[in-house]
């Protein structure tokens, strides 16, 4: 039996943290990929599972919401995006935080990560509210760049387009809400490949300065 099939049969045990029940072949693979005990690094386990063909949304079942942000961050970085997590700033006497800020050339992605399960209309309502809030949060970020230094960010001459977005665990079918792209985690690479073609359909903020992520 190949590792993918073993992992599919063992996913429930991994989610339940019943590592003693995981076949040794799979454990050895996870140790090699993660560089240590799989129980100590669920993000590394989730990434290792994707490498052998487990879908991102199934692999994300191993993660809580905070680890889901780490998982999304790795997803952006593995797709060639310069990205950082937890960007904090102030604007108009309010404190804000952007889950992930990513730079792909002149395109800047201001991302809110939502680890919600698929389901009821109330979740869609919450997603619509989250889209509106992310747009407002991103507008405040754009204003804050002009008046304060933000950790992990450099401002240079040039231009950038800041795109507010939401990354979700599962596919909610609605891909754009209030102009905000809703990106199922498994579709992140294809979204990044197509992003320039989407600019006519999504909201973005144009700046008269270039935003870069500090390395």
Task: Reconstruct the topology from this structure.
Blueprint: H1 3-15, H2 24-34, H3 42-51, H4 56-59, H5 65-78, E1 82-91, E2 94-104, E3 107-114, H6 121-145, E4 153-156, E5 160-168, E6 176-177, E7 180-184, H7 188-194, E8 205-207, E9 210-213
Parallel strand pairs: 3-5, 5-7
Antiparallel strand pairs: 1-2, 2-3, 4-9, 5-8, 6-7
Helix pairs in contact: 2-3, 3-5
Search tags:
Trna Endonuclease, Chain: A, domain 1, 9 strands, 215 residues, 2 domains, 26% strand, 39% helix, alpha+beta, two-stranded antiparallel ribbon, 7-stranded mixed sheet
Q: How would you portray this structure in words?
A:
By secondary structure, this protein is of the alpha+beta class. It has two domains: 3-62; 67-213, Trna Endonuclease, Chain: A, domain 1 (3-Layer(aba) Sandwich). Helix content is 39%, strand content 26%. The chain contains seven helices and nine strands, in the order H-H-H-H-H-E-E-E-H-E-E-E-E-H-E-E. The chain has helices spanning 3-15, 24-34, 42-51, 56-59, 65-78, 121-145, 188-194, and strands spanning 82-91, 94-104, 107-114, 153-156, 160-168, 176-177, 180-184, 205-207, 210-213. The strands form two sheets. Strands 1, 2, 3, 5, 6, 7 and 8 form a seven-stranded mixed β-sheet that branches. Helix 2 (24-34) packs across helix 3 and helix 3 (42-51) packs across helix 5 (65-78). The model has no long low-confidence stretch (mean pLDDT 90).
């Amino acid at each position: 039996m190949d590792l993918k099939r073993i992992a599919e049969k063992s996913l429930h045990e991994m989610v339940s943290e019943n590592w003693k029940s995981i076949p040794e072949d799979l454990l050895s693979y996870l140790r090699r990929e993660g560089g240590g005990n799989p129980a100590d690094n669920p993000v590394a386990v989730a990434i290792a599972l994707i490498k052998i063909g487990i879908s991102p949304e199934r692999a994300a079942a191993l993660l809580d919401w905070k680890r889901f942000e780490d998982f999304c961050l790795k997803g952006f970085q593995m797709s060639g995006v310069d990205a950082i997590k937890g960007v904090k700033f102030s604007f108009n006497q309010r404190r804000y935080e952007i889950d992930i800020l990513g730079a792909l050339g002149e395109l800047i992605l201001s991302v809110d990560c939502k680890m919600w399960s698929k389901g009821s209309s109330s979740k869609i309502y919450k997603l619509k509210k989250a889209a509106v809030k992310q747009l407002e949060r991103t507008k405040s970020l754009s204003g804050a760049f002009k008046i304060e230094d933000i950790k992990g960010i450099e401002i240079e001459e040039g231009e950038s387009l800041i795109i507010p977005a939401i990354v979700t665990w599962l596919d909610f079918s609605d891909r754009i809400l209030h102009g905000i792209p809703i990106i199922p985690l498994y579709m992140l690479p294809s979204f990044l490949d197509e992003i320039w073609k989407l600019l006519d359909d999504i909201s973005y903020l144009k700046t008269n300065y270039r935003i870069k992520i500090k390395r």
